[in-house]
What does this fold into?
Amino acid sequence: TGTWGNLQAGIMLSYAEKLAAVVTGQTAILDLEGDCIKDEGIQHVVTALSLPNCKVSTVKLRKNQIQDQGARDLCGGVVACVKLTDLDLGVNHIGDLGTEAIAEMLNSGCAVKSLDLRSNSLTWKGVESIARAFLSEKCVLSSLFIGGNPIGDEGVIALTSALSSAPKCTLTRLNLSMVAMQDSTVHKLAALISDGAIPLTTLHLAYNSISAGGAVEIAHAVTSAKSHLTYLDIACNAITDEGATAFAEAITAGCLLSVLMLSNNMITDIGGNQLALALESDRCGIHTMSVSRNSIAAAVATRINNVVKANRIQFMRTKCCTLWYCFCLGRVPRLESHVVVLVDDVLRLIWKHLMFPFKQS
It folds into this structure.
């Protein structure tokens, strides 16, 4: 009991210190992840965010056992904090009522551009509320993460239907991993991608029930001239060689995909060889691909990995040249999320070679 009491006291002290930094305007990031603040502590967060000198742009409230009431109370503070653009409420206990309040917040003209509600208790009704928010011109959301919620096909349909008719949608990143999506719903997403109705560049569909039929539809969609998609995670599904071949054809056709995650599916050497051939084509833009935990022989997997590695080096070389050119001009380019992931590799290459051009290893 004493150890638990000391732990709680330490957490509360850390919580108080973080809020104090917000009150005094010393920080732009309020990180309370895992601080066990629950619904009772949300009011203190709201008070801090509502201060006129609040400079917070990012709030991280992941793993705090927040429920619907806490989410509803938080919305007032988020609206008051005009600089708040990133809100992380992942891994809590927020259900449809809390999500409805969040949707109303998005409709009110708040500045939130990134919303993370992964691994909560949303159903299709809660997602329907979020979907309606996209129909408002006041909604500026560009990143939505709702994976790990049992929204099912109904939730996916509600969301895609709203996005396809949204008057001014700015959504570029969408996470629908582990939402119990079936093949029968994938055509809605495919239509959204191929129509280019929204500027979607990043899509996570891992841990669903997508098989060959759904994979083929997505693969065909990314070949559309209107598609913006560059990052697709469709790992941990039931994709077979038919789906892998469809993605190979999309790569050969010169689709915009640069990251394709296909690990933990049902692909064999047949699909693996097709992917390897596509990766070797002149029109391939893939620099990151995972095919691990499939039924692909080691030799085929090695061939894929070697080609991807070569493409990755070429990609980083190009990006380094671009960054160097922008640096010389005194400009900082806007990078996609998957490019940011590669920054460490880029810096390592610069340190190793010091000058251009790079030698391919």
In short: The first helix runs from residue 2 to 23. Residues 1-11, 337-341, 351-361 have pLDDT under 50 and may be disordered.
